[in-house]
Amino acid sequence: MAKILSSFTASSGMGSPSDLVEYTYETLDSLTGGFSAENYIGSTQYGEVFRGKIHEGTETREVVVKRWVKPSNVKTWPRFSARLEAEIKLLTDSVLCRHPNMVKLNGYCCENGRFGVVYDLKPLDTVHNLVLQDDFRWLGRIKVALEFACLIECLHGEELLLRNTDAAHLMVDQLLRMVVQALILSGVQAFSPRLVDFGLLVGGVFGGIPPSECEWGCGGYADPRLLESGNWSEKTDVFAYGIVLLGLIAKRRAYDASLDSRRGMNDGNYTYYWALKEYNTHSQSKVWGKFKKREPKSLVHKSFEMDPYFDVGDGVAITKLAMDCVGDDPKQRPTMKQVVCCLRGLNAVQFYGHIIGIPDEMF
To answer: Is the pTM of this model over 0.85?
Structure first.
């Protein structure tokens, strides 16, 4: 079925991830039931992710299978072999490979121009798919927001830029270690995000941006200032994180083509433009010909107001944080360290973090 690697390809320049399994494409097909629609979870920037099952004797283990797919709607795409090598290096031979919000790599496939990986992960769904669902409760969303922020902070600490942040690249796993009694009483699920796509990662030991590259991140998450200057920085990651955060609190996807579209790109289909309109319209209103400042605005979805763990002050604070992240001037946006600090200060984390498995040292 598969063979254990004694070493990776010499051309990769890596160590020897001897515990990785080298899968055939036929095996990946078998693990996912023929890449069936039933096992399909969603699309990444350059591929697709599926639920899979590995049968080991009498036991069955759930995994996630990702395969790279050549996009049909773009003229350029990264060399998949290089992307695969970089991903293996990140997940086996870097200081981040043991980060709790990085997936654990089980094995890979590189066969006749077809590429894939297998992750040891029991998936619930992606944040992209969950964000509209009512059973994705307030505390679960705060946990996802905080843990993802901590991960990006760690990436930046290693001088790495993620560059392709997308809610579809965050796979949510249900924690096995839960405070069972609290969960029974509260009905809260302890969600934990795992990053499953690193297609545009650059910096540090992974080198700079390829000279021939023409990439702007993922649709709906691209920083408008990047489109003007072409300069990637940590603040472009902060912008994209802000879009994820807005989606979590407002129950919106970064882009939704089903919404009314009458003004082209600058319309409510994009969370970014919707948030700008809603937030700025509320921040000041005209009274008797003069502008009068209103009370702080919250973009949190109304349905969360009935959640027993929701705090109005948190709603205002997290809205301001998200809007600061997507601010027009990159220099004025917070660092990811500041983002994490703000999230740790929320009442939801301070008082209820133990319910969803946030360790004490995080607050």
So the answer is: yes
